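Figure 6 in text form: structure in, sequence out.
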């Protein structure tokens, strides 16, 4: 297990434990005691954490930094994560290649001073800086005809970086965080900002793992959760992949469903998700993006609305309508376990498909609009059918062209222009999925003999399934097969899950 070493009196000012095979991470700041949550978070990520305080004594501090390397085995390196004044010192100290022996990465948070932006660090060291606030001091070294002049320190404005990521060009990888102040990453300070802290954490983790050549599988826990949540309907297995030392959070954004904390999530899955999926639901993965601590899924979901679906259509009785929608799920992990999940979909499209929203019914008092700019299942179908090699130019921008034509016509839609995008797409969207496009993994119902309702549940499920099969449209999709019990499957409410 990774260990945290804390500062203590002695020749070097700190103690360290050599964990063989671990990636040693030196965390440094200008206070004798530091944010214990930061130390714990990095330990939980598998790093051998050492805290080294910076008290302004350069000679003593250099000795402490050098001592971090002691006990490292052959091929083992270390990294430095520094804050504030300690960050400024490390940025200057590690500019010299001779000081970078065994250093694989240096990450600094809101340094008060940075080196000349023309400076270049040794290519073997990964460098990352997080800047915050309005200004930062920059130390420059004037050169004239090859001669080095006296160092000069000046204060410069921190301008927003490129794009929404706010990346800066200061000689090495750096980001600015415009809406926060220095201290935003420390949980025990008033300046702490959760969103900026989490974003910086992900960026830092990426640099450190690359520096140590650590390849961590973040997909397995997510797949275990999906299997339990959608297919085996197992409450214990659904909850098992979540973190326990901090509060996990799940938000289904369009309906603000989900919960914060293990207790709330357990109740959500038990009462509002597990066994609340139509037996006809099929899921097909369109794309998956895996980051250092995140997994982003794009799923095509299709089902017949034969029962209430609380997390998507709360309070809406079954309409027996067919629904197709794209689900986007972004999950983040901490210490290899699920930490948060944000799920998005086009709720307007779902409402159109189940008959709760008519694009032609514009609210009273709204002038110049004869239809709502929403569509039905054709939105999901477009993603499923997308093929740049055989692009149909008339597919995209249909509503935009209609709106422009209407404005030109003034008194109505210009002759020759379709009535609405929905009408145009309707014939396409109602066609059955072909060429395997309708294939997907069918969600499984829990074997009734294990269900909390016993035999009565079995009868109800059978009746519901029979009704589903009778009402189901002939859409060309494979029929849902009778699910088989998954290995280790259990009821939605295990004996030890009672609250």
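Output sequence:
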């Amino acid at each position: 297990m990774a260990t945290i070493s804390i500062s203590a009196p002695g020749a070097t000012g700190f103690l360290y434990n050599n964990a063989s095979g671990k990636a040693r991470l030196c965390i440094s700041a200008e206070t004798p005691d530091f944010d214990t949550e930061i130390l714990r978070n990095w330990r939980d990520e598998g790093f051998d954490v050492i805290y080294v305080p910076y008290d302004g004594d350069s000679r003593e501090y250099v000795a402490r930094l050098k001592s971090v390397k002691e006990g490292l085995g052959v091929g083992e390196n270390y990294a430095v994560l520094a804050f504030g004044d300690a960050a400024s010192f490390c940025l200057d100290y590690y500019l010299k290649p001779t000081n970078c022996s065994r250093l694989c990465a240096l990450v600094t948070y809101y340094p008060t001073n940075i080196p000349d932006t023309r400076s270049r660090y040794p290519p073997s060291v990964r460098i990352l800086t997080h800047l915050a606030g309005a200004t930062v001091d920059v130390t420059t070294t004037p050169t004239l005809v090859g001669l080095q002049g006296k160092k000069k320190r000046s204060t410069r404005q921190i301008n927003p970086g490129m794009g929404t990521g706010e990346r800066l060009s200061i000689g090495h990888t750096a980001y600015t965080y415009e809406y926060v102040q220095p201290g935003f990453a420390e949980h025990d300070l008033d300046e702490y900002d959760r969103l900026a802290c989490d974003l910086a954490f992900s960026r830092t983790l990426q640099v450190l793992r690359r520096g140590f050549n650590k390849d961590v599988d973040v997909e397995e826990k997510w797949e275990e959760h999906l299997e339990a949540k959608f297919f085996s309907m197992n409450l214990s297995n659904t909850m098992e992949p979540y973190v326990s030392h901090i509060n996990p959070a799940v938000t289904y954004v369009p309906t603000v469903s989900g919960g914060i904390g293990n207790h709330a999530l357990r109740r959500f899955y038990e009462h509002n998700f597990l066994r609340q999926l139509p037996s006809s639901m099929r899921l097909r993965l369109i794309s998956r993006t895996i980051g250092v601590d995140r997994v982003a899924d794009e799923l095509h979901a299709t089902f017949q609305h034969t029962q209430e679906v609380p997390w998507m259509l709360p309070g809406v009785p079954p309409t027996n309508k067919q629904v197709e929608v794209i689900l986007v799920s972004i999950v983040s992990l901490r210490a290899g376990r699920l930490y948060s999940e944000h799920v998005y979909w086009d709720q307007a499209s779902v409402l159109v498909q189940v008959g709760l929203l008519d694009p032609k019914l514009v609210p009273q008092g709204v002038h110049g609009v004869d239809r709502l700019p929403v569509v039905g299942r054709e939105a999901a179908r477009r993603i499923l059918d997308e093929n740049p090699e055989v692009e149909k130019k008339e597919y995209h921008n249909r509503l935009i062209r209609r709106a422009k034509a209407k404005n030109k016509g003034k008194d109505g839609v210009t002759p020759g222009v379709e009535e609405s995008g929905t009408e145009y797409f309707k014939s396409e969207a109602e066609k059955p999925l072909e060429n395997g496009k309708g294939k997907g993994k069918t969600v499984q119902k829990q074997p009734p003999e294990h269900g909390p309702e016993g035999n009565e549940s079995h009868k109800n499920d059978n009746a519901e399934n029979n009704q589903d099969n009778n009402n189901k449209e002939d859409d060309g999709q494979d029929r849902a097969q009778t699910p088989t019990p998954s290995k280790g499957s259990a009821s939605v409410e295990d004996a030890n899950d009672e609250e």
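Caption detail: The domain at 241-354 is CATH 3.10.450.50 (Nuclear Transport Factor 2; Chain: A,).
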